[in-house]
Design brief:
- The two termini are about 30 Å apart.
- A hairpin with a 4-residue loop joins strand 4 and strand 5.
- It contains eleven helices and 22 strands.
- With about 425 residues, it is of the alpha+beta class.
- It has two domains: about 230 residues, TPP-binding domain (Rossmann fold, 3-Layer(aba) Sandwich); about 90 residues, no CATH class.
- The chain has a six-stranded parallel β-sheet with strand order 3-2-1-10-12-13, with helices on both faces.
- It is globular and about 65 Å long.
Amino acid sequence: MSVNYAAGLSDYDHKGKCGLPEKYDPAEVLAEKVSQLVDIVCESQHLVVHTGAGISTSAGIPDFRGPKGVWTLEQKGETPHFDTTFESACPSPTHMALVELERLGIVKYVISQNVDGLHVRSGFPRDKLSELHGNMFVEQCDKCGKQYVRDTVVPTMALKPTGGQCTQVKARGRCRGKLHDTILDWEDSLPDRDLTLADEHSRRADVALVMGSSLQIVPSGNLPLLTKRRGGKLVIINLQASKHDKHADLRIHGYVDEVMSMVMNRLGINIPKYTGPNTVLESPARHRVTLRPLKCEHTVNNLHNGQPQDKQDTRSESANTCAIKAEEATEAKTDSSGVEDRVKISVDRDNEATVSVGSSASNSLCSSDQSLQKIEERITNHETPSTNLPEQEVMLNSSQHTDSAVATKRLKLDSE
């Protein structure tokens, strides 16, 4: 768990401000701030979420700088003792809410400083996730770059050899490269692929939502500012003060699970329950639901399988006025021979829809109303694929996202 992770890092004196007091917004203030956040989410086009240790504390994994954090207790000369292990920890409601928001196309990307692997375990697709400080369950080949997601914690830290060997098959046989862990130590360079994508999405985002982080570690902690500097909004949910509070458009002092439960309730979206290991390497069949502040007869909440429900809605007006617009849908279908066809429907700015099936299918155009009907039919019949694989393999080619200016950044405390 995080105690063992912290103990495995090299000695480093500058671990940031630990044990800062926590602040809690009164109930009425919290409700008003959540309403503002719902409005921001409804209006967003490219929402990027930045997560820290605070989203995993309810799963039994302690943070580092909280009142009872690992480093806070160490500074007091106390030895932290916790019962939860990385293997036994289950994703929190916040983790699962992010899975659903990504599935609906509302959250575009997640950038995490956590190494606990709970984002991957929750089923959040790895191609929409940057784990900037590594993952305790992942090994990577030092030769071809292939990564292996394990169901137990890998035996080493600080990018050391784990003793395993790559089994990637190539034209001339197996790769035979050596495997190493992905956990960064102080001053280690951040992974090229993860940092480059995090940088790109932070620049594209119109909303940066920070949850459970004091943003003290760079470069991770400074990424939300890339959104702010380009005219986007910055929202921070954290009990303690964060380094960039003065730049925030909205600052919420509350438990992230409570805040996210309130947000999801007002959006009319259920938080899925965690049912077991669900490693997803790539985004599953995609459909996008965009929430827009328009008057509408049916909200997200009272639509069930494409049909309205007779249910009294007590949520805020901002949630009740959110309209559903299906802009893009991609559905994977497998025939009896095991061959997968991909059906993709996209609507461009001119309200023209392009429909493509398979890798070589011809495209056809139809009006946005016709395409919307087809998309809604796919959403109505859509079943989220479940991939219960305790051990997965994936190739992440960092050379595809090489950026020398980004790749040279290292993990350290922001001393400014």
